[in-house]
Structure formats: C-alpha cells, structure tokens
Amino acid sequence: MAGETIRNAIIGAVLGDIAGSRFEYTPPSRADFELLDAECFFTDDTVLTLATLWALEEGRPFQEAYRRFGRAYPSAGYGEMFRRWLLSDDPRPYGSKGNGAAMRVSPIAQVKFEAGLEVCDRLAVESASVTHDHPEGVKAARAVTHAIYHALVGAPPEVVLGVAESFGYVWETSVEALRETYRFSELAEDTLPAVFVCLREGSSFEGCVRDAVRLGGDADTLGAIVGSIAGALWGIPRDLVVRGRSYLPPELADLYDRALRYSVRR
Hints:
Layout: E1 5-6, H1 9-20, H2 44-58, H3 62-72, H4 80-87, H5 100-103, H6 106-112, H7 117-129, H8 135-152, H9 157-166, H10 175-181, H11 188-201, H12 205-214, H13 219-233, E2 236-237, H14 238-245, H15 250-260
Helix pairs in contact: 1-2, 1-12, 1-13, 2-3, 2-6, 2-15, 3-4, 6-8, 7-8, 8-9, 8-13, 11-12, 11-13, 12-13
C-alpha cells in the first residue's frame, strides 16, 4: 500500500545500521544523502539484533545466540573485547561500558511488549549482562527498551523522550551544535544522550536516522539505536523496509522477515 508505514524497532535498528555503515568516522556532508545505497552493508549491529530476536523466538539463552551468530558472521565488525569473548572457551561478561548492549536490545520490547514493561526490563538486563555487565552498559539497554516499549503501546513522543531524563541521558544542545563537537565514542554514556538529542528534534524515522548518521563517529551504532526507537515511534516507510532486506544474506533475511510479524500498525 502506497504510503504505508510500520512501527517496528527491530527493522528500524537494521535499517539504521545499514544507513550508517558507510559513514563511520566520515559523516555525510549533505543532509539529503541517500539513506540506502550500493555502498551500504550490514554490520555487527544487525547480526546481534537479529540474534536477540532468534533467542526470544527459539527460547535460547542470549549468550548462546550471540556466540552462534557472531561466529557465523565473523567479519561484521565486532569490538575487540567482544571478539575475544566470542572466541573464548569460557565466555564471561567483561564489564563493558560500551553501547553494544543498547544496539542489539530492540527485539525485546518489540516481541514482548504485550507482556508488560517489567518483563521487557528484566530481559533487557539479561541480554546486556552476558557481556556488558557494567551498570552503564546495562542502563543503556534498559533505556532503549523503555523508550521502544512506550512508543509501541502508543505513548506520545514527549513520554518516549522522557525516558532520557529518567535514565539521566539529557544533553541540552541541538543536533546542529552537537555536530560541531561530537567525536567517535563507543561508550554508552556518550552514545545515549546523542541518541535522544536526535530523537528530540525529529519527527520521522528517516529524519532521525539522517541526523544520527551525520553526527559522525560510531555512525552505524548511532543509526541502529536511533532507528530502533524512531521506527517504533513514527513508523518506517514500506519501501525502505523492502529495500533493506536486499542487503542481508539468507539466514538474516529470514529473521528480518520474521521480525516483520511483530510490526504494530496504529
């Protein structure tokens, strides 16, 4: 249907990742850059987001899912600590304060939102803690889950954005001003405030993802996290959903299709 949009945090995370993939360290100079083009590709953000979905659907531990999919796609661009965890014979959480738990958490609220926020919050903690067990890593995953949950149950944007304040992720700045000062950081405490700055000024999925990617730095992860919340809040145009699937190999494309079953149309 022309003009149709779907509210889906999982698809939003994947599309945000793909959109940001070609701009890490070197942001686009134009605000109207092509969101998905031939140079784009999926990264670890997509792999681990869809691994979270697999864990939920198959009833498998998050640790198993992340190791299974991480090893299946070894060149997706994992951080060094996560790579060592993947290859370890005795994997244990490594106290990360990074944004990795927040970028992969979107399936929890999308799949489980009918179970309520308390269940979603508990699962967010579980998913983060297998690697990112530092309080900052866990808090970031919880904040993204809360924002997505409120968006999916139909809360107005001000309630969704209020999650930033409740978790202490507030920067009093504009996207334009932030572009002048923002630098590459994988820390959750730097990533999440920037995410909410982009969401605060936006009013559409595409606009928010463009703002996130144009900040520079960890563009794919910024795109994935912003995309997950914006996709739940404002919906994603159907044509972007269809185009995004073409970047994925068969196993991930199948999970992408399965993610679409959880879409909310309001």
